[in-house]
Every structure is written in structure tokens, then in C-alpha cells.
Write a structure and sequence with these properties.
By secondary structure, the protein is α+β, with helices and mostly antiparallel strands. Helix content is 33%, strand content 16%. The protein contains twelve helices and 15 strands. The strands form five sheets. Strands 6, 9, 10, 13, 14 and 15 form a six-stranded mixed β-sheet that branches. A three-stranded antiparallel β-sheet has the order 5-8-11, with no helix packed on it. The longest helix is centred in the middle third of the chain and has 23 residues.
Length: 484
């Protein structure tokens, strides 16, 4: 019998053999023919699920590696482990990114790789020739190992982490790939007015060690950060300050009427009078859909002062005078702090509205109008009735049964609650042992112990209040009006 169903045996010499695919743990017994002996006990077979293979990169340790001078091949190393064994061959997926800028082409291929070592712990070390793969300067190579186990009929597949081999371009050794993009873009996102002040002060300390051109370039870079920050705060003013202003430098060209330049025909007024769209287009622009509508006029005025100070700071930074820009930067920071405080909303704490206390009823012991707060005790609905009945029958209490016990209801309960029970197979085996030999004390003890762990735990109950002492008793009697 296998799981309650018969399974035929076939003879092989002196042995009897039966086979079945095990997808879960089960109980079985070898049942002899009728009249050839007592029914043997149940035996258990546990089915251990096949785990997915594990793959990791051994060499190199870092996910990104740069090609060194004179290198013509690459040999990354991978380790694959599995509880039942990894297939002897695996696939290596190779992705090449060739080119720079917008002229990048991607190619992908897979090659077979043979492993070495025992089946449960194999090593894969492919050798990749740069010339055969077409890998050269300014390109990236991404490799990933794909392994399988020996599970039948459908093997399980696992992939290793990707390893990147980069061959920097000779023209731009420091500005290619992801690092160059991050170094160019990220500072614009992490700058703040306080950071601009810190950078300007640090530049002043390094002035003696820098050349004039380097000092001017560093100062202009900080001025660019100031411009970006000024543009972000300008969006709360409706964009008036976001436009680029013309810096007062020697190469700045100004125009005015009568200077000999053609400024184009004068702007003609829009046709129609009193049309809202025409008036708005000629004399203003809407702010309702912008962030400016979220600030009150007083706060907008403070923020306008901060943006003006940022503009003066930017002008001096771009001209290479961080010492002259610092006072404006400090004032801008002070205005920003005022805006932050102005935009905070403080709500007063409101307590619960309790009814007024009647002092005339205090310490009188009167209980008129006070309802009882005693709650009715509701019975707990539990679904382990057969298990509890069998547990009492197997014990030594008043409900104990010394002889055979009706276990059909318990058997049905075990089958219906198999998904909830911690170990339904062990409980079914112990139940079968008691059914075969009702007078076996160890069998009854084992089944009773398993039933105790399988039954639902009773809910926690509130602890009873401790009984009052002599002083407390006298106090309660005095409240009730009894003589002390």
C-alpha cells in the first residue's frame, strides 16, 4: 500500500521491486497476502525538493574590470553548485557594446563552456580571445554564465551575475562610459546653497596653490552650480528669474535705439480690445499652473530677495571673485531659511472634549445611572473536537478509554486538516499504530503527544484581579455602606 492506494510489486530474483515518482513525502507498507501474518506498520519516505543551482563569480571580484596594456584575452572564473549535481556543460552569454557616443552597436552570442571538478561543485573558466570576438578600444564586454542541473524531465536553470570588461578609448580615457556621465551630471543634483558656500571658501584657501586659469575655471564651475540652484528657486516665482541674464563682461554686446543696428519692426498690438487672452499675452503670463501659486505674497518677496542675492553671487563667481560672492551667498542662504520657516504650518494641540465632572457625586458611593459593564461569555468555536476527544480518551482522566478507541472521526479530521497540521504524516502513522495495537502504551503516548501539538492553542485570557487585602476590604465595605 502506498498512500492508501495499492501498488503492484514485481519480482526480480530474490527481490520485489516497486517504483513511483516521489513529488511529496508519503507513507507506505508492504501488505502480505491474506492469512500470512499481521498487518505490518507504516513506513515513511520524505521527498526532498531539488534546489535551484547556485552560480557565483570567483574571478574577478569586481563587477567592472578595465583592460590593462598588452592584454589580449580574458578568463573569468565561475563556480556552480547544486545538491544533486550540475550539468557538465554550460552556456556563456557574451554581449559586446562597440563604439562611442551615439554610434554604439550591440551584438549578443552564446558559446558552450565545459566545466571541471565534481558534479556538485563545478568550475567554469572560459578563455575569451579579443581578436576572435572583435573586442577593441572603446568597447564593453558583458558576460553571464547559464548553468543547468540534472533534474528530469525539465532541468532547472540559473544565471550568474554579469561581469563587465571595459576597454577605455584612447581619445577619452577618463570621460567614457557610465563614470563620465555620473561625474558630469550628478553634481548638479546634489548642490545646495550651503554647499556652494563651502566650495567657495575651500577655493579661497587653495588660491595660492592654483594657477590663475585653474582658479578662474574652478570659480566659474561653482558659478554654474549657483545658476542651476537659482533656476530651481525661480520656478516658485513663476519663472521670472529663470531666464539667462546677460553678464556684465567685456564681450557683452548691448543694443539701444539709434545705435545703427536693425532691431526689427516695432511690435504691433494684438487685434481686438478687452479680450482676456490678448491682454494676458501682451502684459503678463499665467501662474496658476506653476509652483508660484503655492506661496503667499510675503513668502514670495523673501524668495525674490534670495534669488537676487544668488544672481549677484553667480556674477562674482563667474568673474573669478569668490571672495566678493560670499557675502551675497550668505544672504541668499539666510533668506532661504526664512522661506523654509515661513512655509511651515503649526497646528495647536487640541485635547479630547470630556464631559464636565460633577463634584457632588464624588466619594459618595452612589451608582444611580451607572450601567453594568459585565460582558456575556461567548463560547469559542473550535474545529479540533475529534482531536480533543481522542486526546482525552488516550489519557488517564475521567474520559480515558483503556480498550480500543473509535478513530474513524480522528482519521477524517487528520485528512481534512492536513494543510494546517505541522506533520500530518507522523500523526497518520501514529494513528495507524494505535489502531493496529490498541493496548500498546508507547503507541498511545506518542499519538497523544502529537495530538497535543496539532490542536489549536486556546486564546490568551486576561488575568484575574488580585484579591484585596484587609485594608482594601474595609475600604470597599465602607463605600458600599456596610459597617467597618
Amino acid at each position: 500500500m502506498l498512500g492508501g492506494q495499492p501498488l503492484a510489486l514485481r519480482r526480480d530474483g530474490e527481490d520485489w521491486i516497486a517504483s513511483r515518482t516521489a513529488d511529496a513525502a508519503f507513507l507506505y507498507r508492504v501488505d502480505p497476502a491474506a492469512g500470512r501474518g499481521p498487518t505490518p506498520p507504516l513506513h515513511r519516505i520524505d521527498a526532498i525538493a531539488d534546489a535551484v543551482p547556485q552560480v557565483k563569480a570567483i574571478s574577478p571580484k569586481a563587477s567592472l574590470t578595465l583592460v590593462t596594456r598588452g592584454k589580449r584575452s580574458w578568463s573569468p572564473a565561475f563556480a556552480a553548485t547544486d545538491d544533486y549535481g550540475v550539468a557538465a556543460s554550460a552556456r556563456l552569454r557574451i554581449t559586446l557594446a562597440i563604439g562611442e557616443g551615439e554610434n554604439v552597436t550591440f551584438t549578443e552570442r552564446e558559446i558552450a563552456v565545459s566545466g571541471s571538478g565534481p558534479a556538485r561543485d563545478r568550475r567554469f573558466t572560459p578563455r575569451l580571445d579579443f581578436g576572435a570576438l572583435g573586442f577593441g578600444p572603446g568597447s564593453d564586454m558583458v558576460v553571464q554564465l547559464i548553468v543547468r542541473d540534472n533534474r528530469s524531465p525539465a532541468p532547472q536553470e540559473a544565471r550568474s551575475p554579469s561581469l563587465i570588461l571595459r576597454w577605455p578609448s584612447a581619445q577619452q580615457p577618463e570621460g567614457s562610459g557610465l563614470e563620465g556621465m555620473v561625474n558630469t551630471v550628478l553634481p548638479a543634483y546634489f548642490r545646495s546653497q550651503r554647499q556652494i558656500i563651502i566650495d567657495a571658501e575651500a577655493l579661497l584657501k587653495q588660491k595660492s596653490r592654483l594657477s590663475a586659469d585653474r582658479y578662474l575655471a574652478r570659480s566659474a564651475s561653482i558659478g554654474t552650480d549657483q545658476q542651476i540652484l537659482r533656476g530651481r528657486y525661480s520656478q516658485f516665482l513663476g519663472g521670472e528669474e529663470s531666464a539667462q541674464r546677460q553678464l556684465p563682461t567685456a564681450d557683452a554686446e548691448t543694443h539701444h535705439d539709434g545705435d545703427g543696428h536693425d532691431h526689427g519692426p516695432p511690435r504691433q498690438p494684438a487685434p481686438g480690445f478687452g479680450v482676456a487672452e490678448d491682454v494676458l499675452a501682451d502684459y503678463g503670463h499665467p501662474h496658476d499652473d506653476s509652483a508660484a501659486s503655492s506661496l503667499d505674497p510675503e513668502t514670495r518677496a523673501i524668495l525674490k530677495n534670495a534669488v537676487d542675492e544668488m544672481w549677484q553671487s553667480e556674477v562674482h563667481l563667474r568673474q573669478g571673485h569668490p571672495d566678493l560672492a560670499l557675502p551675497f551667498a550668505y544672504r541668499a542662504l539666510r533668506f532661504i531659511k526664512e522661506v523654509q520657516q515661513a512655509t511651515r504650518i503649526f497646528l495647536s494641540r487640541v485635547g479630547p472634549e470630556l464631559p464636565p465632572i460633577d463634584p457632588s457625586r464624588r466619594m459618595t458611593g452612589k451608582r444611580e445611572g451607572a450601567a453594568s459593564r459585565t460582558l456575556a461569555v461567548a463560547p469559542i468555536e473550535r474545529g479540533d473536537g475529534p482531536a480533543a476527544a481522542a486526546w482525552r480518551a488516550l489519557g488517564d482522566g475521567p474520559g480515558a478509554i483503556r480498550g480500543p478507541i473509535a478513530l474513524d472521526a480522528l482519521d477524517r479530521w487528520v485528512r481534512s486538516e492536513a494543510a494546517r497540521l505541522p506533520d500530518p504524516l507522523a500523526l497518520a502513522g501514529a494513528l495507524d499504530a494505535v489502531r493496529r495495537d490498541p493496548d500498546c502504551p508507547p503507541c498511545r503516548t506518542k499519538l497523544r503527544g502529537l495530538l497535543w501539538t496539532a490542536m489549536e492553542r486556546p486564546p490568551a485570557r486576561p488575568a484575574r484581579r488580585a484579591a484585596p487585602d484587609a485594608n482594601g476590604t474595609r475600604y470597599l465595605r465602607a463605600i458600599e455602606g456596610a459597617a467597618p
